[in-house]
Amino acid sequence: METLVKAIAKFKGGVKVPHNKNTAEDESVIIDPPKRVIIPLQQHIGGPCKPTIKAREVVSVGQVIGDSEAFVSAPIHASVSGKVKAIKPVMLSNGQMCDAIHIENDGLDTKVAEHGPVSIDSKEDLLKAARDSGLVGIGGAGFPLHVKLAVKDETPIDTLVINGAECEPFITSDYRESLEYPERIIAGMQAVMKYLKIPHGVVGIESNKPKGLQILRDRLNELADLDPTIDVMEIPSLYPQGAEKMLVYATTGRKVPPGKLPSEVGCLIMNISTISRLQEYLETGVPLIKKRITVDGNIATPKNVIVPIGTPISDVVKFCGGFIEEPSKVILGGPMMGIAQYSLELPITKQTNAITLLSEAHGLPEESPCIRCGRCVTACPMSLLPVQIERCARNNDVETLKKLNVSACMECGCCAYVCPAGRRLVQSMKQAKLLEREAAK
What we know:
This protein has 441 residues and is α/β, with parallel strands linked by helices. The chain has 13 helices and 18 strands.
């Protein structure tokens, strides 16, 4: 048995958070079919889709129901079969309004006839498959996969880095992917590396997930054509280890310059579930119509649940036994970077990886004046000065905000997590970034 490769470097700052990985050993289960789904036409960074069907039409599972001519976009598919009841606006989890397709499930699970394995013989074939699959960065950001893979020849990539860190508390959906589909993850990496001509691949998984680390390494060793170009790397268990710049530094020792992308230092980053789902599409032709999400916190039975995209949060909560007590917050995502929701009728989207339900015991402390302790500065992985940025945002001091490099903030929440005064620093950072963007218009 080979020894796991250790992380090359450790980033500055960060915080040790309680992991609460209560569902880590719970095998994924499939939810009862929802009676209806609400499928927003904006589930990615870039141009929103337009409906390709009309109200009262009958659609099949996997059918394209939304698409766009914009390059930075991804098609959207029906996750159930049934009648389109309406196409009308909904408010997304981030407060943005967009049109959504409301489908009443007929329970027949009628599938599009043309699904089948996808033949890949070139980079162009791979990019087309990535687009046709509807895949986006399903770890959270929602960047269309085909755009990410369309690496320009003048930007040479030598390392494919797979993000399996999953450093947020509670969430184990990516960890379950590594346990349940290791062969698919490796095969997906090999396909991307082959057609994008990337010589080296590495999977970065935090040290607190030893089973996931070892299963992937064992599967690599078991392959008849053992691929020495792929490493499974144990990286430090430190939040936010899964952020792109932190992950690149841990796995390669390279520093991504401020305002630049990982491609500037020869790296292509993909989420572990995204690479696995790409390989599933190549094998089956079934596009992205379902997601594994972790449901944990103030819930009767925490689970990893596979749900059709568009399923209302309320259906997922019911499937997991309901609330233990009325939650103080319902968060899509984890408690560090997730977004609190205003309604249980909001749908699961491509980017959703968890529903975290918090009780009053997890509430924020009362905000009090800053005591100038500097803990936020020490914790910031981007070496920013959150307390000064907060003051400048309050005073609308855009010029100083530019000097303080506020645009580098990734809103990870480390500063607010360590603040003994309970300052709402993440909100201040978001406000500061918005001020800077508006001033630049």
